[in-house]
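Form P-L/3: holo structure prediction, ligand zinc ion.
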Amino acid sequence: MPVPLAPYPTPPAPYTPPANGGTQQSQLVCCGCRNLLLYPVGATSVCCAVCNAVTAVPPPGTEMAQLVCGACHTLLMYIRGATSVQCSCCHIVNLALEANQVAHVNCGNCRMLLMYQYGARSVKCAVCNFVTSVGASASTVDQKFSA
Ligand SMILES: [Zn+2]
Ligand SMILES: [Zn+2]
Ligand SMILES: [Zn+2]
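OUTPUT (holo model):
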């Protein structure tokens, strides 16, 4: 007696994720519930799956940075280069300086101009390896020189 042939199951095509440069994901914080949302780069707005609020995506090329609110510890996003970010939760204004700015100091040994991340305590000179403390204020240095 003929055996009915079961339909041959077609194996699912292996999913090959797009190579680097394909669909890139970016992040933003929902304007409604403050959840972190992922969206494909190029989208102009993101609808939150949690609260359905539509959050506008900053124009492409806008570099976003993140910081954590010093008062309520909410993750805040802001446009890189901004100097202050107001928390949408507690309305505290957080200074964004430390996150993205670079300061300069002269090497205490060879006077080479060094760059360092704002907020760093010391900078090691790439030329002479002297460690220059940047925690001290300029006035302290002046006192040392005038004494
Ligand atoms: Zn939301
Ligand atoms: Zn806050
Ligand atoms: Zn030096």
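COMMENT: The CA atoms of residues 105 and 114 lie 5 Å apart.
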